[in-house]
Amino acid sequence: MGLENIKHVVLVLSGKGGVGKSSVTLQLALSLSQQGHNVGILDIDLTGPSIPRLLGLEEKKVTQAPGGWLPVKVHDAKDADDGNVPRRGSLHALSLAFLLPSRSSGVIWRGPKKTAMIRQFVSDVLWPPNTDYLLIDTPPGTSDEHIAIVEELHKLAADVHPSSPSNGNGLHLEIDNGPKLSGAVVVTTPQAIATADVRKELNFCVKTQVPVLGVIENMAGYMCPCCGEISNVFSKGGGQIMAGEANVPFLGSVPIDTGFGALVEGAKAESGTANGDVTTNGHTSTGHGHELVERYRTCGLYPIFSEFATTINQKVQDTATS
């Protein structure tokens, strides 16, 4: 029950707030979906959920069905056409914000109530069948939400049953009966004050036996919304140095792109046109009447995250077959 329709679970972590975990989660989800994977996003940042706003779905509510909650549909899957457009996977999302009365409703909970909500998210959500990836957007730090989600995923991935075969020493073997916790993507910004906190997140992964799929250095440089040229007006390279020192993979750097912000907000960019058109990296996408997943293809960050998604998928598949 709960995550039985999920094949692989990936956590998006950072020990630092404001580094862009939610935007990274969304862009990885859109990129994986563009590559034909069915994707779910679970937002467990209970006190500051961002995913509904990034999706432009703040007014949506979760539907209660027999057996659990139905996540909010972002877009359906679409079969490949006769041209050059490949199959597109579906995308669904769940966040506490979909359960609150309004955007301004505050969540003032102690640890036990947070833990109970995380457990409910894991056990009582009916994700669509054949969901390839569940990306879990986490809050900053290494506190109640992180401990609760990792414990629940480890329990689901390998439960111990008294009736399971014994290993000869009186201990019963574990039986695989749940989704694979494939690992974590760790997000940082280049500055030393951020990487110092993110190192603690890498230590958390080691102690909780969560493989690190890679580190993404976000907000490294600035992408011109007109030509796509990247200027390193801010520091760059701190995330790569940290990954090297911690001996974990470095996926790459992501510049600041104002076009992405305008895209997800449905706002009119400075160089855009009427009806919410957005210009980014020299391309104009019509914001009115088009799904976010299709508009994102024109975003300057799409090639970067498409490469991240390909790398992560390959790492997950290699681990699953090893």
UniProtKB/TrEMBL annotation:
Gene Ontology process terms (BP): iron-sulfur cluster assembly
Amino-acid positions noted as binding [4Fe-4S] cluster in the UniProt annotation, renumbered to this chain: C224, C227
Gene3D superfamilies on file: P-loop containing nucleotide triphosphate hydrolases
The UniProt record lists the keyword Lyase: no
Gene Ontology molecular function terms on file: 4 iron, 4 sulfur cluster binding; ATP binding; ATP-dependent FeS chaperone activity; metal ion binding
Entry-linked InterPro entries: Mrp/NBP35_ATP-bd, NUBP2/Cfd1_eukaryotes, P-loop_NTPase, YlxH/NBP35
Alphabetic keyword roster: 4Fe-4S, ATP-binding, Cytoplasm, Iron, Iron-sulfur, Metal-binding, Nucleotide-binding
PANTHER family registered for this protein in UniProt: CYTOSOLIC FE-S CLUSTER ASSEMBLY FACTOR NUBP2 (PTHR23264:SF19), NUCLEOTIDE-BINDING PROTEIN NBP35 YEAST -RELATED (PTHR23264)
Family, similarity comment: Belongs to the Mrp/NBP35 ATP-binding proteins family. NUBP2/CFD1 subfamily.
Name of this chain's protein: Cytosolic Fe-S cluster assembly factor cfd1
